[in-house]
Amino acid sequence: MISRGQKIFIGVNYVFFIILSVVCLFPLIHILAISFSSSAAATSGLVTFWPVDFTLKSYDYILNKPEFFNSMFISFKRLVLGSAISLVLCLTIAYPLSKETKAFRMRTIYAWIFVFTILFSGGLIPGYMLVRSLGMLDTIWALVIPPAVNVFNVVLMLNFFRALPKELEESAFMDGAGHWTTLWKIYFPLSLPSIATVTLFTMVFHWNSWFDGMIFMNQVSNYPLSTYLQNVITSGSIISTSLTNLNDLKDISDRTAKAAQIFIGTFPILLVYPFLQRFFIKGIVLGSVKE
Amino acid sequence: MKILPFLIQGIRIRTEEQVMKTSKLKAELPLHLLILPGLILVIVFSYVPMLGLVMAFQKFVPALGISGSKWIGWDNFKYLIAMPNMGQVIWNTVYIAIMKIIAGIIVPITLAILLNEIIHERFKKLIQTIIYLPHFLSWVILGGILIDILSPNTGIVNQLIKALGFEPIFFLGDNKWFPITVVITDQWKEMGFNTIVYLAAITGINPSLYEAAKLDGASRLRQTWHVTLPGMRPIIILLVTLSLGQVLNAGFDQIFNLYSPVVYESGDIIDTLVYRLGLVDAQYAVATAVGMFKSVISLGLISLSYWLAYRFANYRIF
């Protein structure tokens, strides 16, 4: 059945994807290997896939830095606070917008008010000035409130709401339920898959955001972890000045310490990645291709 | 006497109408209330900054604020046009963005078609899991990794290049290589994720079309050419059209985490310039003018792209 040419193609195709995955994953593995290697081994270029001169010194050094934990705590704080606020807003915006124009006459106007913010923005400087004039600089609110309404998530959610059978809502109204009850008692439990999608997206967004931390926080002690990492990675030396024990220089260098911090910054994403993967494909397809 | 019931009836009809109207308002009130908090936030954090764009026409002094600063018309824009590197920055932005758009169409489509040829479901899932992953990591992380592996002396990539007998390449410090590196590493991050939509489109193709093609003696390659690609055409057209709005978006996060003053010549883009002008040099008004230039042109392009998508692909945002 299968011709020779096809067999070759299938073989080449498998090899191609194996190489592609290795290329995709290799940089991450390499950094992980460096973070567990001694500085001497890393500098001499012996490290590829596997740690050489296995040592935990770099992690030891980082995990003993109070700034690191402090910024990690700020990251988790913004993640929890931000996801909760965003989710509530996403539901309360998507629900009215999912109604027919007949049932909610202002719907189209509201929808355009939200969608226009995707198309146009005041840009960096006016946004910064606003946050500054609201007195939110150096508070957690500067990281949580400005990005709280995500219109893409709202669109995803409202498309999901619209796919729910109309009869559910009608029978709820028949039984005397109002919009509020219908949203929380009927729509909410039925939308758990898309709520999971939106929440995971928001959590990843908050974990990864670094720029807002950089511009809205004057004190380094208020940096979330991503901003802290950005600062560490782009600034030159972090180690040599702060190491008191010269012996440690053999095991830790800027390079291994940075690698360790990069890996710790990646770790929470890797942790939720299996859950993410389960939902995002559905979410993406739902949000982008509609019949 | 006869006219009275008629009048009463008339009154009753009218009040019923009014009752209907007020009851409809009453029925819609909870919907307005639900949307209100989100609406307020969007107005404050999206629309108020839009008003802030008037700074671009002022000699803005932070102490005086927008209301107190002097109006200077188009002077900020004139200053920008006279800036020696402005043309280069716009060129860099458009060049990198268009290369990214082209790569972002060709690579994921090719990958989706090839992935679709893989029969082992488990293997396919594994590959997908791996190539989707970088999408979820931030450019801070990926930038840190790239700076390490692309380093000219100690980076593993250059060690490989040296081992093969070539001169090491300073990918992030050479103006010839920087834009290429940016485009390729952007594909590393996004290619897997961008296949999702195309894979969904392939799954949606009617299997009987393949049966018919097979009966007509079409090889796999011809099936791809005559069935798979035409089946993907609507989504390809849609995504190509929508990417028009990205022509001034070269990717701030990525470039900011990879560039350095050595490669400003080839890597400085509008967004990085706005950042440096505005938040580093505190030239608020000039930076706002650059940002406004970008926002306005982008709005035009995005509107055009949505209109085209609506016209030719029957696409609606909501």
Q: Give unreliable regions of chain A as ranges.
A: none
Largest sheet of chain B: 2 strands, antiparallel
Structural class of chain B: mainly alpha
Specify the CATH homologous superfamily of chain A: MetI-like
CATH class label of chain A: Mainly Alpha
Q: What is the count of β-strands of chain A?
A: 0
The CATH architecture category of the largest domain in chain B equals Orthogonal Bundle
Q: Give the strand content of chain A.
A: under 5%
Strand-residue proportion of chain B: under 5%
The helix tally of chain B amounts to: 14
Spatial gap, N to C terminus of chain B: 57 Å
Mean pLDDT of chain A: 86
The percent range for helix content of chain A is over 70%
Percent helix of chain B, as a range, is: over 70%
Helices of chain A, by number, come to 14
Distance between the termini of chain A: 37 Å
Arithmetic mean of pLDDT of chain B: 87
Count up the domains of chain A.
1
Number of strands of chain B: 2
What do you see in this structure?
The complex is a heterodimer of chains A (291) and B (318). In chain A, 40% of the residues are buried. Chain A is mainly alpha-helical and 291 residues long. The mean pLDDT of chain A is 86. Chain A has one domain: MetI-like fold. The two termini of chain A are 37 Å apart. Chain A is 70% helix and 0% strand. By secondary structure, chain B is mostly helical. Chain B folds into 2 domains: 50 residues; 231 residues, Orthogonal Bundle (MetI-like fold). Chain B contains 14 helices and 2 strands. A two-stranded antiparallel ribbon of chain B has the order 1-2. In chain B, helix 5 packs antiparallel against helix 8 and helix 8 crosses helix 10. Chain B is globular and about 75 Å long. The chains are: A mainly alpha (291), B mainly alpha (318). The interface between A and B is large, with 93 and 87 residues.
